[in-house]
Amino acid sequence: MGKLPVNPVNIKEAIRKASATLDQAGMEESRLEAEVLLCHVLGIDRIQLRIGLKNSISNKQNHHFIELVKRRLHREPIAYITGHKEFFGLDFQVTRETLIPRPETELIVEKVISLKERHSFEINIIVDVGTGCGAIAVALAVTMPDVKVTAIDISHGALEVAALNAKRHDVFKKIRFVEGDLLEPLAESVDIIVANLPYVREQDMGILGDDVRRFEPELALSGGVDGMDFIERLMNQSCSKLNTMGIIILEISPEQRTSVVNIANQCFPKANVEILTDLIGHDRVVCIETANSESGNLRG
């Protein structure tokens, strides 16, 4: 393990030494991570950081930076160390109560926006099930001002974080936060159900990366033996919770594609089922338009 700087240094030297230490520990983006951590300590962005590479940092800042790098060396995710993660161009507060938002989940938000733009019927009510830090719910409320959003989570701690994020982005009054299990607390029918539910298979929990397995909440990861426990329950519940032209959009694991499509066709025989792929070509999101006239129509 490389030696971290203990005396006052300039920004460039602090980044160099921290980056080398992280690199020796096997961190693939060591330079970026060092920069992000130092930006957090100094309260500046990366552009300001690079402009001021020759600027010195104080002993207090240096020691704080060293402590954060040590936490990263123990595989604690950057998002938990800084308490922040970007999603859909918005900054979100995250804690150990919430799953860290992933870029692939943005596909759900993008799909809802495209559906609203092309559909002839109005989309007025959206429910985000398993909202976590509120990333999907807040992003939808920010980008679609005329839509009402309900955010549901079984974790009270996660809902508190989601509410804070809604306040930070001035959409708190547009989102209704509900504590409960999947769709059980939902009394009214909705137009769209979106969800990034736990979908990791039981056999895969032990082989997750240390940064995920040791730090992110198991409640937000484990989907049972085949990873389908929550997805299957949600699909069955949604039959009585969707409006006539209702739509379901779910994040899935690639190997669950066939199972999810089969359940969708059982619950909604006339549905149009579309599979969306992430940036590396993996099946990642399923969109089920329940009112389609062609039985079992699959796209993607």
Provide structural commentary.
The chain has an eight-stranded mixed beta sheet, sandwiched between helices. The chain is of the alpha/beta class. It folds into two domains: 11-74, Helicase, Ruva Protein, domain 3 (Orthogonal Bundle), CATH 1.10.8.10; 95-299, Vaccinia Virus protein VP39 (Rossmann fold, 3-Layer(aba) Sandwich), CATH 3.40.50. Helix 1 runs parallel beside helix 4, helix 2 packs across helix 4 (59-73) and helix 10 packs parallel to helix 11. The N and C termini lie far apart (46 Å). It has helices at residues 11-24, 30-42, 46-51, 59-73, 78-82, 106-118, 135-143, 156-168, 210-213, 229-238, 257-267; strands at residues 84-87, 90-93, 125-129, 148-153, 175-179, 190-195, 242-251, 272-277, 283-289, 297-299. The longest helix has 15 residues, at 59-73.
